[in-house]
Design a protein that fits this description.
Layout: H1 2-11, H2 13-41, H3 46-118
Length: 119
């Protein structure tokens, strides 16, 4: 189980690193920088508030598009590119498993027949 964990961490190290770096940066941006910019603007006029609201809506739409559309497409491309290689590997593993289990069952049968012969 520990080996699997180490393999997963090694395989997804850039994903982890980006999560550890980008996550806190976005949190600081949203919780510190954004309110500080709001304090600097003072009291907004109606047109300033409309522009600020439009900016927030554009940011929300871009974020939603990245999460809902781009991420599944990127995962599909990654799986599709790896499917040929992993498909061949899984077939080879299946053949090795079947031949290994057949060899194991043949050994068991030989042992059983040897025991039967001795009796």
């Amino acid at each position: 189980m520990l080996v699997l964990f180490v393999q997963l961490r090694r395989r997804y190290k850039w994903t982890l690193l980006s999560g550890y770096v980008v996550g806190p940066l976005l949190a600081v941006l949203i919780m510190v920088v954004w309110p500080a910019l709001m304090l600097l603007t003072g009291v907004m006029s109606c047109s300033d508030f409309a522009r600020w609201t439009a900016l927030v809506i554009v940011i929300a739409v871009i974020s939603a598009l990245l999460l809902v559309i781009v991420t599944p497409i990127a995962e599909f491309i990654k799986v599709h590119n790896n499917s040929c290689v992993s498909g061949v590997q899984s077939i080879n593993q299946s053949i090795a498993f079947i031949s290994g289990s057949m060899a194991h069952s043949n050994t068991r049968q030989t042992r059983q027949t040897g025991i039967d012969r001795q009796q």
